[in-house]
Design goal:
Pfam families: AzlD (PF05437). The protein is mostly helical. 81% of the residues lie in helices and 0% in strands. The longest helix has 25 residues.
């Protein structure tokens, strides 16, 4: 069994690594120093790629044998896409889709 000290140490190291990976870009490219062009192009491509992976991950386990789940998933996905095309707000789109999916999964 893992001791409490060991668990606290694991959490602290994980938190420190997470903080460093999130803060490092701001530390490296703050002030007058700019990102290289290849990194700016990559930064533009990563968010849509992450969203695509999340969509595939969410849709891959939907069973056609469960019509309620299928309807809830694809209606929520349609709302996310349409809301994002309309408002261009990722947080709003994902939050609305999640709330709609949870509501529909309870009803259907």
């Amino acid at each position: 069994m893992i001791s409490a000290t060991h668990s606290i140490l694991l959490i602290a190291v994980s938190a420190l690594i997470t903080l460093l990976t999130r803060a490092l870009p701001f530390l490296l490219f703050s002030g007058k120093r700019r990102m290289p062009a290849w990194l700016e192009r990559l930064a533009d491509k990563i968010p849509p790629a992450i969203i695509a992976v999340l969509v595939v991950y969410c849709v891959r386990s939907v069973s056609p044998a469960a019509p309620g789940e299928l309807a809830a998933t694809f209606l929520s996905l349609a709302v996310v896409v349409l809301l994002h095309l309309w408002k261009r707000n990722t947080l709003l789109s994902i939050a609305a889709g999640t709330i709609l999916y949870m509501a529909l999964s309870r009803v259907l």
